[in-house]
Specification:
The complex is a heterodimer of chains A (831) and B (263). Chain A is α+β, with helices and mostly antiparallel strands and 831 residues long. Chain A contains 24 helices and 23 strands. Classes of the chains: A alpha+beta (831), B alpha/beta (263). The interface between A and B is medium-sized, with 26 and 29 residues. Bound molecules: adenosine-5'-triphosphate (ATP) and magnesium ion.
């Protein structure tokens, strides 16, 4: 019987529930879309890795010394040692490094994420069959993969430039290989000796690839080889393990990407939860007489709760199903977006059970959870309410709300504080969610005075419709609050992001002015390159006084991997970066090290101390602390003498050039750019370019985040529409009465619209207020990590409040239209 | 038709002759189609005189409400014309109808007459406020004093009794000094004492303030407050009693109600 009641109600309130379901649909679509897309991308990479390194039985390599840096190379002689192990069919060295192919248009191909690979050509390599031309035989010959050739506009016989970590190479393309779909990566192969010289060091391999004789298993062979290795610094791994490692690297990046998107999906669902809660509360309130009648004729409390929850399950299932379908569409859209930005995705979508499972789990659980409280409330309706004439929900005191809301908000603030203070960042998320729930609980209390103030001018500006609008918004503070809260969340996050980004921009500007004493900075657009050659070219430009090439690297002191900056003439940093020495000198010699004050203090070292550092190649170096400088945002905590770095890295990773000139200006900049015309991956920037560049990338990131948060705001708008539409239904008789005594259609529409605006602006104000508080908190928490200037973008925040008013107007269009179209007579006799 | 309109301070000027406040001219209205068609009004013509308290009676389903709705511009007619004052209601579009209801017609429903968010006073001045007109304070005071609820003006409808609510509704209907007030069973939900208060108020508004009031009622005692009782049956005007008493009305009702029901 109660099932019948549930089904009848679902059918009777199709429109009201459709809007609720829409909130579920949008949230679930976001989840499903993210999962389908990342599954699909993961599958493509799986295919790629299944293809590459297929016949490899064992890999021999040096153990990694520093996390996050390349493993050391192995000597070429190791290949011979391995080849002699019984069961080895073939053992050859492989060379891997960075090499970017410059296309006919003068720009390097790829580089927006996927690697630009330089490899040593090996005739035994079966992964890359030659489709045109032949393999490289001389130092100035190169073979590239077919897709890169296509993008670069190069064919066999063409001359081309290849960028490596060192002087750029002018070479002839002698062959093209089919490497299949590399998901955007590029490949350039040199002959073995050249590859070693350009990418590693002569006489070294990145690792040794081993193929097994027939009948010899991977693990057997690995164990045999392991025993034959001359040093514990080397290790042998099975081909399977190697392929898994490659995969897990991509999986890690993909799962980061997935988590990033899912965070926004969760926000959308969270907002959706508010709307579901609100809709069910209103449906229960509107049906209180009917529910009381059920109770009066003998339905138990449990049955009433179950009947309402049954509806929630129905809405959840329908919403999840449609959301899943919409998610597939979203995944296709994402794929198109990525394709448009250069990544290569072939084929259709991959479906696993995962998106399906999660869609239903999320959709149904969220709907039922959000509907639980209204359902419990429904059960508490006394049976006598059936006899009462007016809407029978007794007004409840807001005191409990006030207390509970304050407690939840405070708990959320504490958790957020812990998250900001260094505890796992997830705590910050949980804290923020709690703050939102807490403030939403407080919102009915806050709402009364705020709505009064907001609506104070209404009667004067808009007459009676204005007065009625304010009264309607005040009529059910909980409903107004829940509706406004949905909008609050999105706007709070956007406002917080704006405060942070505005602070970041101001901080960057301040730091650039403070430490950037060079006139120009030359940095690689993508990838790494050795700035030494470029430095030489720039030094020849008239008017250039000082060119400082900077490199970066990592070494390990004790058990900690630490990053450093290296430069050949540290004394020049005094002028180029306003290096201010506190003690010692900037004369580093071969093995000197500069530390900034906080680092020196916390490591308890000073001028004259000796620090033993282990480099990525496995070698160690005793470094002399030559000086201590004041904290410098551009240099970071450590500056190392370049010779010490070079001793452990044949191709140190270049950071860029800092250039001081006699007279900075367009002419000088032009001359520098001309001198660097052979280095397409380098760009010249002056101080304001550097600022703009940094600010531009911050802006881009903000835009991305805002776009991702837009969905949550759309859901909030649906919430306002839903609340208004339900209010219109609830007040049908009242609206009929107003029309009967002479309210025009326009006045009716205006009344609904103004109510909507009050609710939306209340949400907007709450949101921006919370957002500003969050933003300021974050800025304070990370002030010593670079975000040292607080900047609150007031005009932007005001614009968001205005935007929420506009949202209010838009959300009211349909409900207002419905209200104004009500048939007066029918409305008056509406039950 | 004994009672001519008497005026008092603040009331409208006494008409030189008896004129009609509202008039229906052979109006017909049917609901549904084919076999299911119900003729609610069948060529009804009535003239409601200014300054007269008219009661409409008749068996359930005889078309009383329909007649009121059509004359008040709340519903359309299939044929015939309705005039309020010199305005032909049946020719107005929604915008003009709304303005007509706002400025020239008062309406009291059986229940749910008041906007719950507004106080009693705000409800009374609602049509004026909507129109953006200032209330005539003297007139308003007269109306408020007549309903006798000066102490409850700041109360919400939920804080008033059913009878008080209906009196507030009557005051609202009169506040803009309309051409005519329609009241559809205004005492239907009230006990006899509260009902009497409301009816007395309506009669006073006619006798002392010169208003024109039409009310639908099932109650012979209520009808006795009126100056004229019209009888409807099966969508047709079948009889009228001037200067009714409860006995006369009761007598008349017995007379035609039986055939009216069996018909
Ligand atoms: N919206 C409608 N649809 C169909 N028929 C209707 C509608 N409204 C009224 N009727 C029919 O029109 C006829 C007249 O109805 P009306 O409401 O005018 O009667 P009434 O005299 O006011 O009755 P009561 O004393 O019960 O209020 C009735 O037969 C009724 O069933
Ligand atoms: Mg009726």
């Amino acid at each position: 019987m109660m099932v019948k009641v549930t089904l009848r109600n679902l059918a009777a309130h199709k429109l009201r529930l459709a809007l609720t379901a829409l909130a579920v649909i949008l949230g679930v679509a976001f989840v499903a879309g993210t999962l389908v897309f990342t599954d699909t991308t993961g599958r493509r990479f799986d295919d790629l890795f299944a293809r590459t390194g297929q016949g490899v039985a064992v890999k021999v390599r040096a153990k990694k010394v520093i996390e996050g840096a390349d493993a050391p190379a192995v000597p070429a002689s190791l290949a011979g040692t391995v080849a002699r192990v019984p069961g080895v069919a073939q053992a050859y060295g492989t060379v891997n490094g960075f090499a970017a192919v410059v296309g006919r248009n003068g720009e390097a191909v790829g580089g927006s994420g996927p690697p630009q690979l330089g490899i040593g050509w090996n005739p035994a390599d079966r992964d890359h069959p030659v489709t045109a031309g032949r393999g490289p035989a001389r130092a100035d010959e190169v073979v590239i993969d077919a897709r890169t050739a296509g993008k670069a506009g190069l064919r066999v016989g063409d001359r081309a430039r290849v960028l490596v970590q060192g002087p750029a190479q002018d070479v002839t393309v002698v062959g093209v290989v089919d490497a299949g779909n590399l998901m955007g990566a590029t490949v350039a192969a040199f002959d073995e000796a050249t590859a070693q010289r350009l990418l590693l060091r002569p006489g070294q391999f990145s690792d040794i690839t081993v193929r097994a004789q027939a009948g010899v298993g991977e693990t057997t062979l690995r164990d045999r080889i392991q025993r034959a290795l001359p040093s514990p610094a080397y290790e042998a791994i099975t081909g399977t393990k190697m392929r898994n490692e490659n995969e897990s690297e991509v999986t890690r990046i993909l799962s980061f990407f997935r988590t990033f998107l899912l965070v926004f999906a969760v926000i959308s669902i969270f907002v959706g939860g508010f709307i579901i809660f609100n809709t069910f509360s209103m449906l229960v309130a509107q049906r209180s007489r009917e529910l009381a009648l059920l109770r009066a004729v003998g339905a138990s409390r449990k049955q009433v709760t179950r009947a309402v929850l049954g509806e929630a399950v129905g809405v959840g299932v329908v919403g999840s199903t449609l959301g899943l379908a919409a998610g597939v569409g979203l995944a296709l859209l994402l794929q198109q977006l990525f394709r448009a930005s250069g990544a290569e995705f072939g084929g259709g979508l991959t479906f696993t059970y995962r998106p399906v499972l999660w869609s239903y789990a999320v959709g149904v659980v969220v709907t039922v959870t959000a509907a639980y409280f209204p359902a419990r409330r429904a059960a508490r309706i006394p049976p006598v309410a059936a006899m009462r004439d007016d809407v029978a929900m007794p007004p409840r005191s807001l005191r409990i709300r006030l207390i509970a809301g304050s407690v939840v908000t405070a708990a959320g603030a504490v958790l957020s504080g812990l998250g900001l203070g260094g505890a796992p960042i997830a705590l910050l998320g949980a804290g923020a969610a709690l703050v939102f729930v807490g403030v939403a609980m407080l919102a009915p209390v806050i709402g009364r005075p705020v709505v009064r103030v907001l609506g104070a001018a209404y009667p004067r500006l808009f007459g009676t419709p204005g007065r009625l609008a304010t009264k309607n918004a005040l009529r059910n503070p909980r409903r107004t609050a829940a509706t406004a809260s949905a909008l609050m969340i999105g706007l709070a996050l956007v406002s917080a992001i704006n405060v942070m980004s505005s602070s970041a921009k101001a901080s960057v500007a301040g730091q650039v002015d403070e430490v950037f004493a060079a006139d120009y900075m030359v940095t690689p657009v993508s990838g790494v390159s050795d700035p030494a050659e470029a430095a030489g070219a720039v030094r020849a430009v008239p008017g250039v006084e000082l060119v400082t090439a900077a490199y970066q690297g990592r070494f390990k002191v004790g058990t900690h991997a630490q990053s450093f900056l290296a430069t050949e003439r540290p004394a020049d940093l005094v002028r180029a970066t306003r290096l201010s020495l506190r003690s010692g000198s900037a004369d580093l010699g071969r093995d000197g090290l500069l530390l900034d004050q906080p680092t020196a203090t916390s490591a308890k070292v000073g001028v004259g101390s000796v620090v033993t550092a282990r480099f990525a190649d496995g070698g160690t170096e005793r470094l002399r602390v030559a000086g201590v400088y004041a904290k410098n945002q551009l240099l970071g905590p450590r500056v190392l003498a370049l010779p010490a770095y070079r001793a452990h890295a044949a191709h140190p990773a270049g950071l860029g050039l800092m250039i001081n000139t006699a007279r900075a200006g367009a002419a000088t900049k032009g001359a520098i750019e001309r001198a660097l015309s052979g280095h397409p991956s380098l760009k010249v920037q002056d101080r304001s370019d550097v600022k703009q560049d940094a600010q531009h990338s911050i802006d881009q990131f903000v835009t991305l985040l805002t776009v991702l948060l837009t969905l949550s705001m759309i859901i909030a708008v649906l919430g306002i529409i839903n609340t208004l539409a339900l209010s219109v239904i609830e007040r049908t008789r009242e609206i009929g009465l107003l029309r009967a005594v002479g309210t025009s259609r326009r006045q009716t529409r205006r009344m609904i619209r103004l109510e909507s605006v009050v609710i939306a602006v209340f949400g907007g104000l709450l949101g921006t207020a919370i957002g500003v508080v969050f933003g300021i908190a974050v800025q304070h928490a990370v002030a010593d990590r670079g975000l040292d200037v607080l900047s609150v973008p007031v005009p932007t925040l005001v614009a968001y409040v205005v935007l929420s008013a506009v949202i209010g107007v838009l959300a009211a269009v349909w409900p207002a239209w419905r209200a104004s179209r009500l048939d007066v007579l029918k409305a008056i006799s509406f039950e | 038709m004994t009672s001519s309109a008497r005026t008092m301070n603040g009331g409208p000027p006494a008409p030189a002759a008896l004129t009609t406040a509202a008039r229906a001219d052979r109006i017909s209205k049917a609901y549904g189609r084919g076999d299911a068609q119900v003729v609610a009004l069948d060529e009804v013509s009535v003239a409601l005189e200014r300054g007269v308290f008219t009661a409409i009676m008749g068996p359930s389903g005889s078309g009383k409400s329909t007649l009121m709705h059509c004359m008040a511009g709340l519903d359309s007619v299939d044929s015939g014309q309705v005039y309020v004052g010199d305005i032909e209601v049946t020719r107005l579009d929604d915008k003009r109808l709304t303005r007509l209801r706002r400025d020239r017609i008062g309406f009291v429903f059986q229940a749910f007459n008041l906007v719950p968010t507004l106080t009693a006073l705000e409800n009374i001045t609602l049509p004026l406020d909507i129109a953006g007109r200032k209330a005539d304070q003297a007139w308003l005071d007269t109306v408020i004093d007549t309903i006798g609820l000066r102490q409850r003006l700041e109360h919400r409808p939920s804080e008033l009794s059913g009878g008080q609510r209906q009196r507030v509704a009557c005051a609202r209907a009169l506040a803009s000094r309309p051409e005519i007030v329609f009241a559809d069973e205004p005492t239907g939900n009230l006990d006899s004492r509260s009902g009497a208060e409301v009816l007395a108020f309506l009669r006073n508004s006619v006798r002392e303030m010169g208003q024109t009031v039409v009310t639908v009622t099932h109650d012979a005692v209520a009808a006795a407050y009126a100056d004229l009782v019209l009888f409807l049956a099966d969508g047709r005007l079948v009889d009228q009693i001037p200067d009714p008493t409860a006995e006369k009305v009761l007598e008349r009702m017995k007379g035609f109600e039986l055939p009216g029901i069996t018909a």
